[in-house]
Specification:
about 0% strand, mainly alpha, 4 helices
């Protein structure tokens, strides 16, 4: 369970680490091949997922599925929350 929570946090923090963490990686990679601007966030997500997986392995907590699922939920968490909130508000308005 702890691995899931760590991965959810890592997924949620992906946009914040895009500049300071993925930026230097992209600059290094651009010396070898072209990196598209939209791939910068993907690189940040991969780094966050790798860090979450290492933490989960060190703490011996969580499964691979739990870490991946937590990271995806964390990444899309704010969007999922907004959709659920709109659904609930829609039900309340229609009653």
């Amino acid at each position: 369970m702890l691995g899931f929570l760590i991965a959810a946090l890592a997924g949620f923090l992906t946009p914040q680490i895009e500049g300071p963490v993925a930026g230097p990686i992209v600059k290094t990679l651009e010396g070898y091949f072209k990196v598209e601007p939209y791939e910068k966030r993907l690189i940040a997500f991969m780094v966050a997922l790798l860090a979450a997986a290492i933490c989960a392995a060190l703490l011996d907590s969580g499964t691979v599925f739990g870490v991946i699922f937590g990271a995806v939920l964390g990444y899309f968490g704010s969007r999922i929350y907004t959709v659920i909130k709109k659904i609930i508000e829609g039900r309340t308005d229609s009653q």
